Amino acid sequence: MKSSAKNIELTTFDDLFTAGNPPGEAGGAIREIALTDLFPFKGHPFKVLDDQAMEEMVESVREHGILVPGIVRPREEGGYELIAGHRRRHACELAGNTTMPVIVRELDDEEATLFMVDSNLQRENLLPSEKAWAYKMKLDAIRRRAGRPGKGNSGQVVQNLKGKASVEIVAENAGENYKQVQRFIRLTELLPRLLQMVDDKKLPFNPAVELSYLTREEQEMLLALMEKLAAVPSLEQAKRLKKYSREGKLGADVMDAILTEERPVPVQVTLKNDRLKKYFPQSYTQKQMEQVIFSLLEAWKTKQE
User: Fold this and answer.
1) Half-sphere exposure of 155 (CA within 13 A, CB side)
2) 239: burial class by Cβ within 10 Å (0-12, 13-18, 19+)?
3) Are 35 and 92 in contact (CB under 8 A)?
4) How many CA atoms lie less than 13 Å away from 256 in the CB half-sphere?
5) In the chain, at which end, N or C, are there fewer CB atoms within 10 A of the end residue's CB?
6) 3-state DSSP call for residue 55?
7) What's the pTM?
8) Which pLDDT tens digit goes with each residue over 20-57?
9) Triad 69, 71, 75: Cα angle to 5°
């Protein structure tokens, strides 16, 4: 959905937390908060793993403490919701700390979501599922903000996306093509186990996007069949599964027929340079040799016809 008015702007990452300003000016005073009072962001899509990077962070915490404070906001039910700092909190736990330095901010749901997503999307080696849910959360937050009635407009919807579709804003901020962002968001329609297969590189990205159009029941059926046959749909097979699903014709028998069909084996021919060179002058480049070879092949093809 594209915007039609341009009355206000979305609060940006830099507007919320200006990196160059001291904490007291840009984000409030730094406070030491008990780890037991710090709760994860609702629906936080980024995984906190006990991997080598976490081990290094724990060692850094033990030696230097937390160098960059987390960002939190107060919870109505008590304590604070982490907006940025989930991995730092876990590192503090593993290091034996009982508190963590944070900056407390008053942020609404959209502001908190935008900052939480943007602060994590800067990390390297994000999993497909992390990107998928992060993009979706940010898209939803932008749409809620864009569609919120503006004050003094008698309920008129205030648009703030400068005439751009919400997904285009997400894509621009992430430095990705908006169609690729749409494909990532489609992954959130997958069953958790299928999405985990994408993370584990057992199910390729593009076939997974096509399978996301299947109903939940169809995905359950397909997953059981994939496990039974130890098979993963190719992109072409996934597209056909999607087609039959849209036509209302996708049953277990159709899935079985598609997954068990014989796949063409690609033909690969390798020509070694040491064998080729004896047929050409030493001065010939690779491109010149290729031109001669394809010229001879064309002549042979014509003769066969």
Assistant:
1) 0
2) middle
3) yes
4) 4
5) C
6) helix
7) 0.69
8) 333 444 456 899 999 999 999 998 989 898 999 999 99
9) 135
